[in-house]
Design brief:
Mean pLDDT: 80
Number of helices: 30
Largest sheet: 8 strands, mixed, barrel
CATH architecture of the largest domain: Alpha-Beta Barrel
CATH topology of the largest domain: TIM Barrel
CATH class of the largest domain: Alpha Beta
Organism: Roseateles paludis
Distance between the termini: 62 Å
Protein name: EAL domain-containing protein
Keywords: Membrane, Transmembrane, Transmembrane helix
Shape: elongated
Pfam families: EAL (PF00563), GGDEF (PF00990)
Strand content: 15-25%
Strand order of the largest sheet: 12-13-15-16-17-18-19-20
Radius of gyration: 45 Å
Amino acid sequence: MARSACDGDWRTGFCLYAGTPANEEMDCGRLRAAHLDQVVRLSPALMALNVLSAGLVCLVHGLPWTPVMTGWLLALGGVVFLGMRAWWLWRRREVERVSVRTFHHGTKHSALLGAVWGAAAAIWVPEGGGLQMLLAAFITGMVGAGGIALAPMPWSSVSYVGTITLGVVVAMFRIGGWVNGLIALLFIGYALVVLGAAFTNCRQMLALRGSRDEVDRQREVVSLLLRDFEDNASDALWETNREGVLIRRSPRLEALFQAVGQPLDQVRFPHWLKEHSPEAAALLAAWALRRPFRDLKLQIGRGEGARWWQISARPVSEAEPQRWRGVISDISDAHRFEDQLRQQAEQDALTGLPNRRSLLRAAQTALLQNQHGWMLSIDLDHFKLINDTSGHSVGDEVLREVARRLRKHVQGHDLPARLGGDEFALLCLSAPGDAPPLDRARALIGDLSSAIHVGAKRLHVGASVGLSRLDTSIRSLEELLINADLALYDAKRVGRGRAVVYGPALGDASRRLSQIELALRGAFKAGQFHLHFQPKVDAKTMRPVAVEALMRWNHPKLGTVAPGEFISAAERCGMIHELGQLALREAALAAKQLDGLVVAVNVSPLQLMESDFTSIVAGILKEVGVEPARIELEVTESVMLDDAREALRRLHALRELGVRVALDDFGTGYSSLAYLRSFPFDTLKIDRSFVQSLGEQANSHAIIDTIVQMARALGMRTVAEGVEGDIELAAVRAMHCDEVQGYLVSRPLSLGSLKSWLDGQHEGLITDSIDSRLHPWWQGTVHSSLPGPV
């Protein structure tokens, strides 16, 4: 209720008698109607009491009646008649608003009634006797009861109590004496107290009614919003009674149930979900425990007609925990799109086999569950010759045929996979009755060595296989893969077309890893680590926009140690944090010398989850004196696997510092759309495996195009990694990729070489080199730039 000029003090009730715009904002007409109704409803009782009181006065006075008594009775009768007439006319009317004039009629009637009894006091109280005592009792009760009863109409209360009080004062002065004068003053004081109580009651009534009106208005607004939500939103509100039957039915809710072929009539919601959704156990458990739940995803139905709902709900109130209210969102389209992305991320586009990501996940699960088995690393022996002589389209058909033959050797829970190029793998999980793994590997080699027919061509490839045992002696997934690769390299070294089982004789690589771990700390103190920088250029103009900092290590005895070796070793021995801080500090120093270019630094998942990583980044940037926007931190999708919520919180903290954040190797793993919505990355880096297969696999084009379109919709830039030829460059340009990175632009360079390269680029040399082949060192060679550790 809007406040008036006198709202909040004793004058509040008198605002009902005013007609100013400020008071009309209070909707005083409706308030006057409510207050008048409250008084009129008491009229029969009050008039009856007045008649009874008059009868007792007549009885005590006795006959014969004097003209004064007769006149007084007629006056009282007239006032009672007016009061009852007003009640009779009012009783069946539904009056929404009352004017000030009508309110004043009530004041006049109250004044007349008070004057009648005030006159009785003034006339007969001085005469003494029994009539004096009777009138004293009546008048005292009338002042108290009438003043409070007329509280909703303040001027009526004042006129009624005031006229009676005036009569009492006249009576006391007629009697005379200081005692009666004191009684008159006391009566005036009591009358004022009664009026004060009446004003307080009136103010409280107005405040209570205003609060109720505000609640009604808010309820109406909420109801309108809910109706609008139900009519137009994609979500549907629902509510159940104590028996679980749906009682709130909106058009959207009916449409959701019609989509799964279920009418709403008498649907007992939890029981219906139990029958139609295999994932309803969590919802039923929360329902039974009366606990609210949020964003619970359920599949409704099976097959092609299945839908996916996201449900949130809570009990209506603590007093009624059996009744529930919630929201249903139909996320079928989003689920299918996410499932499509998941399939693209976990399956090889050319062969349909699981990809490296899927294989690593399955192997990791087997390790955690202490399962026994074997990892078979498979490499085709003569595939490059087929590509060179028959073309990539024929090579693609050969790879598809290899995948079909590999599937024939799958037993039980085995998992075949294509790792990339002509590399395949088979994870064999032991089961009773399975053939020995070495026999299976030889059978697979024999199958792959038989001729492959592609059109009129009859081709031979052959394969080599390395086997590594998966059991409790394997300490990590890296060890399993390294062992399998070492066995594969040995198989190729001794003549190809062979299967070799990893054994102690092939442990040189393991010993090298141990040597790397031992040499790490000394190398760090000796300053053997340094950064190289690989430029990233605008895909349209080929002008540099950023560089990626890549860590390199040259050891006096071990030689050049690949990042893939020393990064994993640093993570195992706990030095990844020192190494990461070194890379970030050197990258920040380089950014100060590379005007206008953003410097990207890779961040290990272990670094990101370091408790004080954000403060470390802030401290290094402040120490070096470089703007945070000049630094971009690149993370991989693996940071989301263990604790996605904490990882997102830390990424948001980094973003608040002002640094940019990029998602590296996008497409090789599984990035939930929920993560991309929860943290809008500045950049998505498309994995090189998709870019380098653009000339070989048509599906790679569709995958990259999907990623670019999704990134644009989410406001992110895209970088195509591994661009090594004009075909790839033209393709990513056509798909409107923002930036490119790869050997076509430049291989990683030291800081000094990078500055020289940038100077040449300013003179237009790099664009010319791409068009006129001025860089012969990349021709005919497929390069792979290894990522930096941090």
